[in-house]
Amino acid sequence: MERLEHVDMRQYTSFKAGGAAEELVLPETIDELMEVLQALHRSGRPFIMLGNGSNTLIQDSGFAGTVVKLGEGFSQVKVDGETGEKLVCGCAALMSSVAKIALAEELTGFEFASGIPGSIGGAVFMNAGAYGGEMKDIVESVNLVSRDGKTMRTVSGAKMDFRYRHSILEETGEIAVSVLLNLAKGDPQKIAEQMRELTKRRNEKQPVQYPSAGSFFKRPEGFFAGKLIQDAGLSGLSVGGAKVSELHNGFIINAGGATATDIIDLMHLVQNTVFDKFGVRLEPEVRIIGD
Predict the structure, then answer these.
(1) What is 2-72's CATH topology?
(2) pLDDT in tens, 35-82
(3) Backbone region of residue 183 per phi and psi (left: phi > 0; alpha: psi in -120 to 50; beta: other values)
(4) What fold does the segment set 207-289 form as a domain?
(5) Has 165 been annotated as catalytic?
(6) Under a CB-based contact definition with an 8 Å cutoff, are residues 287 and 218 in contact?
(7) Would residue 106 show up in a list of annotated catalytic residues for this protein?
(8) Catalytic-role residue among 75, 141, 215, 245
(9) What are the residue ranges spanned by the domains of the chain?
């Protein structure tokens, strides 16, 4: 189990911005994870769980605590032996890797997630979705470790309280360590074709060449965040190195040298302007961590 001190979190988050964490721990097994969580619980030391860092921003002041990130030991993906239509995924496995394995096994149902730049654990935590699909559609069960590291349990997908960008984990603080996906046999040519089409659409409509956290704001009920931002005249607005993408106004991008403060200040400017013009309060999807 690797332990690092005073870690620059820019290299662990997709925004490529922000401060340092006092400590980063990478457990490789469930026993190691439970040991770490129990020690943190006894000490009262603050900590956060980090997936692939595609939805997290550490403030420039840093995080005076421990970041726990599941190591490579949690990246394994295997086919369920009984039916051949289910995948058992360690929660550090990347969505893109799972998509490739699903294709190789001729399993359909995961295509929507093939381009989401995150880990399975992060996707479960926030019920990630795209192009008409969500994790709630394919999650059969999740293995969870309690936040104090003392217990484990298996929760069915139906009891994960999956809603728009939400799961029960936001309330319980438990850590997902593995997930069982319920897929179906399909035509590999059609699966590959759909993945290519979704990748093409993503590349054409999203600023994938810039560091970002994907869609920055949650979709407000009855509206689209990007459309509100566009109608407020904020397309291309910049604060320091942070910018509202002209390609997709729902994205805040690191156009070059952005600090976390730049990104947060731009977020507030967008929120306030949209609220003043339309009376709609935009809420960030991105977790903002730090003092």
Answers:
(1) 3.30.43
(2) 999 999 999 999 999 999 999 999 999 999 999 999 999 999 999 877
(3) beta
(4) 3.90.78
(5) yes
(6) no
(7) no
(8) 215
(9) 2-72, 74-203, 207-289
